Amino acid sequence: MSAETSVWHGGRGGLAALRPGRSVIVRLKDGGPGADRVWVDIGRVTGTILASGRDTVEVDMGPHRGRAHVVIPPQVFERVLVRHPRLEPGYLIDVLCVWSPSGPLAVRPGTSQPGYRADDLAAPEATASVPGVLRGTATWFGAADGRTPDGAAYPAVDSEGDAGGCADAPSGCVPFPYLSLGSEIAVHNECGGRAVSMPVVECGCMAARFCDRCVECDASPRGRIVELTPAVFAGLGGELVAGCFNVAVRPDAPSEAAGRAAGW
Fold this sequence. Notes:
The chain is mostly beta strands. 6% of the residues lie in helices and 35% in strands. The radius of gyration is 18 Å and the shape is globular.
């Protein structure tokens, strides 16, 4: 840690936020020892709104992640409402949170809310070809508690046999090849240039419902191609508070493929 280390805890924080028992994500400095960024108790809630009150939202995060009861503090509510104007059952929500003993507290929207209901997403044409490299948006999921092994949630995990997919997953708005849990994918951050190979650790069926863009470095093609665990997202140069980066993904790629930058 140094004076240049940036600490986040629901907003810009300081070293006082680093208390025993809190979960952290650390990104190291390039080319040397020391922490560049530290995020404390950061989390994300993405899913379908089940119910909403004056300052709370009940969210279905999908079959793998369960439900979340999110409190939206008064000082954050207007900011969330600007990008999520329909806090109504059936619509999607994506908010960044700080974890508290009582549950997740929203601090800002993760993305803009899609204008359609969660079950109204149009599938790609049946004749649409599947590209060898998928391009679109990478986001992150979960919390900094390490409960999910590092890797990726992929929107098209096969539901047949032991592949590990969920039967009611939507097809998404872009054509995907089907993979299985444990498949290797190569992920390239098209904003920062970093790339790495990683396993698919979860079915990203909730990501398939979002047909949005990332604008971190130009507008990406539509569609959430992959969700990453927080440490992997940060390690690839992503800013957890920004919520996304433009991505290229090579499905079912051998581990050495990630290092071949010219192949992207």
